[in-house]
Amino acid sequence: MMKSYLSKVALLIFVFASCGKSDMLKERPNVIANGITAQESALNQAATIRYLPAQNGPDETSALQALIDQSVAGDIIIIRAGNHYFSGTVHINKSGLTIRGEHNGSDPTNYMRKAATASGQGVSVLDVDVNIVNTVIDWIYVDGGMLPEPNIRVFGNDTKIYNSHFRNSGHSGILIHNANRIWIEGVKTYYNYVVGISQWGSSDNRIKNCQTYENGGEGITIDGGSHNCFVENVWIYKNNTHKRGVGAIGIDAANGANIFNCTIDQTNGHAVRFQNNLNQPDDGCQVYNNIITNNQGCAISMRHPQLVTNFGQWGNTMTNNTGGSICSEP
Questions:
Q1: Are 100 and 76 in contact (CB under 8 A)?
Q2: Which residue has the higher pLDDT, 190 or 119?
Q3: Which residues fall within 8 angstroms of residue 167, CB to CB, at 6 or more apart?
Q4: Which of 74, 185, 188, 217 has the most CB atoms around its CB within 10 Å?
């Protein structure tokens, strides 16, 4: 009888422990290490791993495209350390692939550099194509050479981008267009001509534990129906350097934006700006527990404030902003 009782207790302990572990992993889906989910880890056991060696000069667009074209869901492509040059756009046209760069544990060591196809022209280095889902991009470093087009364009749902750098684009570091449930974490976007992370018509995205700084326009845009975007623990520093945008974070026609636990400082303009060019409501947006200081404008600015409905702000430190804490204009 005692043996049966102990067996039941052991079973209950096992079930409880399993449930507790599952609950802990809900926020970032089943992350176990290095930006890899538990599902991805299981796939990795049978995955084919392909490598792109650094050529340090010759165009590698076709070489990387060939590796993607050979791959199937669950496969991994490793971008080797060193310089890689691209004169065309590489299309991630298969669902469930992982593109991972070599790194030193704190920064990528692969340098994917954009080269113009013709004088004054440029293309994005990477596109996640329409209808492609569950792409994982981890530890890559893209330098746009200040050529036109974003460094990466995301059109596919459920894309995850971790631990990567996107800099020196002639447009945006990351452009998300009509793509939903995008997760961006541990990413740096900086020195881009316009926006660090640009979103249009893309809902339920999360930007977490990132840095976006010294971009010519906004650090982050939440525009054109990009509803329920969560921006958490992001350092948004010294953006709108050339006044190409409306401030550090620009919001337009987006409901449910949540901005929290961020540091927003030294913007050349407003810190959080409801621009409202599209003349549509920004309903239920929340700005809370942020440090918003030393910006050359307002901490929170509302253009056409009648469009900003059910707005909430609390727990923010808003000091030394030249325009004051909260301001509005017709």
A1: yes
A2: 190
A3: 142, 143, 144, 151, 173, 188, 189, 190, 191, 192
A4: 217
